[in-house]
Amino acid sequence: MSVSHAKITVAGKTIELPVRKGTIGPDIIEIAPLYRETGTFTYDPGFTSTASCESRITYIDGDEGMLLYRGYPIDELAEQGDFLETCYLLLFGELPDLIRKEKFDYIVQHHNMVHEQFARFFQGFRRDSHPMAVMVACLGAMSAFYHDSIEILDPQQHNIASIRLIAKVPTLAAMAYKYSIGQPFIYPSNGLNYSENFLRMCFAVPCEEYKVNPILSRAMDRIFILHADHEQNASTSTVRLAGSSGANPFACIAAGVACLWGPAHGGANEACLKMLEEICSVERIPEFIARAKDKNDPFRLMGFGHRVYKNYDPRARIMQKTCHEVLNELGIKDDPLLDIAVELEKIALHDEYFIEKKLYPNVDFYSGITLKALGFPTAMFTVLFALARSVGWVAQWKEMIEDPAQKIGRPRQLYTGKTKRSYVPIHERASI
Ligand code: SDX
């Protein structure tokens, strides 16, 4: 409901625009009447101060460094719950009771196999394809395999598609990894929980028994919880925009995977590890800090900074703790990359430039070191981010498609191109 109005005068005309309050967070000005009443657009490339939708799923307080999934703080969910409980919460809005949790776990578990012809689908890729390229293709291909859950007007099919995505993306991600290293695909095992199953599909081989390490699978599960959703970030906004045209959920999630791949977004964990390897020694940190501050150098400190967090990303704190747990469990005493990361963080957090611009470590800063220690190659890091974020994408897609006020997204522009001019036949054109 609108609680007040904002007055704006444009081209000599003054209009009042409704102002609405959310439950928490900044108010919004409903600017839809602006163009109709004044013939003027707003302009906000990158959407730095533009709300694209109303949502009840996730809330970030950037100044406080707080992240809530349906009102629950990320640290409480990560410490006390598991990833499938977070999936249920994001999809349905409430934490499940014991019976609903067991039923949800059972349903997800019994959808974790993929159509057997997906194995042949993989044969079309080069072995050295980037696994994110494979995942973009596989998510899109899901709409070619699962026709009975792509009807966007049927809520029952929304739920089937959601379950299939949560259940099958880990299997496809593990297949992408196995294919890249020339090892046979490992089928899911229903005797294991979600994250144990994923690690087994990635690291088991047919010739020996796979031994689950509960510390490592718990760390993997927690990493999935940290990456599950994050308001209207670039890839989620991509999924919503694709979904607003009525595209099927698998095609929309494929678009989200493509967007997440970028190094400014989900690709930052891969880029951050490569940066730490390039820094190579604590002595070279000042050189890279100087480059990050140099306006003429495109280099950025990967894993640092965030559009919303102007405080420490709460996920980075939990990720740092998980990183130490995993390294300790694996007996990795002095990981040189971790030493560089810890020193880099210390220097950056005391540097005037980073303080003034409120640049803190984000979720990607420690994740690369952790995932490398778990045994994943760098190219798989963003695939793991996409695996976890699939539930956030599908929850946001569901919210958008089930909103009666939903309409196709179609931004306008500030046109600064040529004004109307007549065609000139080629022989009459001046040479350029
Ligand atoms: C994710 O949106 C989400 O929620 C994303 C995410 C999610 O869960 O979905 O949280 C996941 O994508 C985390 C972010 C991962 N990306 C990186 O770590 C890449 C490095 N970070 C930057 O590229 C940057 O900080 C962004 C992209 C994350 C945010 O960019 P913004 O909000 O557009 O801010 P900006 O680029 O305008 O930077 C503001 C200033 C600039 O200086 P000025 O032009 O004002 O002088 O800070 C500087 C930037 O130059 N700056 C950095 C920096 N990040 C910003 N300088 C050096 N190193 C950096 N990392």
Report the end-to-end length measured between terminal Cα atoms: 58 Å
Ligands (ions, cofactors included): s-citryldethia Coenzyme A
Q: Taking strands numbered 1, 2, ... along the chain, how are they ordered across the largest sheet?
A: 1-2-3
Uncertain residue segments: none
Count of DSSP helices?
18
Radius of gyration: 24 Å
Estimated share of beta-strand residues: 5-15%
Mean pLDDT: 95
The helix/strand order is EEEHEEEHHHHHHHHHHHHHHHHH
Based on helices, strands and strand pairing, what is the structural class? mainly alpha
Number of strand segments: 6
Into which percent range does the helicity of residues fall?
40-55%
The largest β sheet comes out as:
3 strands, antiparallel
Shape: globular
How does the SSE layout of this entry go?
Layout: E1 2-10, E2 13-20, E3 28-29, H1 32-38, E4 58-61, E5 66-69, E6 72-73, H2 74-80, H3 83-92, H4 98-109, H5 118-122, H6 131-145, H7 155-180, H8 194-203, H9 214-226, H10 234-244, H11 249-260, H12 268-279, H13 285-293, H14 314-329, H15 336-349, H16 352-356, H17 364-374, H18 381-401
Antiparallel strand pairs: 1-2, 2-3, 4-5, 5-6
